[in-house]
């Protein structure tokens, strides 16, 4: 059996290239042809063909009826388990955020055009917010989703919204792409997003994006709008930002 060619850093070159192709497929948001993968990756066509064929055989890539390629179902289990591990690792920091704010703290990631809640520490108040870990929602109507989208290029956000649509969860949900994009620019400028009863009436949420993470993610604090007032937002937002910065730093150090 031939020995795998090693890169300058001692890594296996073919393995690195295979993961690069998986990331290129993820970046497309859907599917790509071999020629499109060659254009975005810079790899020779024979190399791409050989790697893709192996990934298809293993179930990590699938070929659609139009002969384009997309991420395979076998990646779902890996992604879901990685998300849950990430959530478990972050729980102590979320618990500290709950102690500091008195409200429920959440951690969510963007997966396949949806926001997935991967960890939560509930408030100690009898009236509190609860979101089931593993719940999936569309990003345009949530604080964590808006925080995450504020870090993405506008063209990527538009493409995502084209794929998902913008259903209204309440009368306060953004349903127009242009209005949401203008709002996301404000979110990026101030460093946090506020969900003003856009997902659920009577609920306010403050969300801050993580930076430098392998997958887009955000941390948030949510509570009844009568308790989590607009005046409280200015006091709590810096606490959420501090937690997001700590999570981002820890992730960067472990990468």
Structural class: alpha+beta
Helix content: 40-55%
Provide the β-strand percentage band. Answer: 15-25%
Strand order of the largest sheet: 6-5-4-9-8-7
This entry's quaternary arrangement is single chain
Q: N-to-C SSE series?
A: HEHHEEHEEEHHHEEEH
Helices, by number, come to: 8
Q: From the alpha-carbon coordinates, what is the Rg to the nearest angstrom?
A: 20 Å
User: Shape, please?
Assistant: elongated
Average residue pLDDT: 86
Largest sheet: 6 strands, antiparallel
The N- to C-terminal Cα distance equals 31 Å
What is the β-strand count?
A: 9
Low-confidence stretches: none
Overview of the structural elements:
The chain has 255 residues and is of the alpha+beta class. It has eight helices and nine strands. It has helices spanning 13-28, 34-41, 45-58, 74-101, 143-149, 154-164, 177-190, 230-254; strands at residues 31-32, 61-63, 69-71, 104-111, 114-121, 136-137, 193-196, 203-209, 217-224. The strands form two sheets. It has a six-stranded antiparallel β-sheet, sandwiched between helices. β4 (104-111) and β5 form a beta hairpin. α1 crosses α3 (45-58) and α4 (74-101) crosses α8. The model has no long low-confidence stretch (mean pLDDT 86).
Observed structural traits:
255 residues, alpha+beta, 3-stranded antiparallel sheet
Would you spell out the secondary-structure blueprint of this structure?
Blueprint: H1 13-28, E1 31-32, H2 34-41, H3 45-58, E2 61-63, E3 69-71, H4 74-101, E4 104-111, E5 114-121, E6 136-137, H5 143-149, H6 154-164, H7 177-190, E7 193-196, E8 203-209, E9 217-224, H8 230-254
Antiparallel strand pairs: 1-3, 2-3, 4-5, 4-9, 5-6, 7-8, 8-9
Helix pairs in contact: 1-3, 4-8
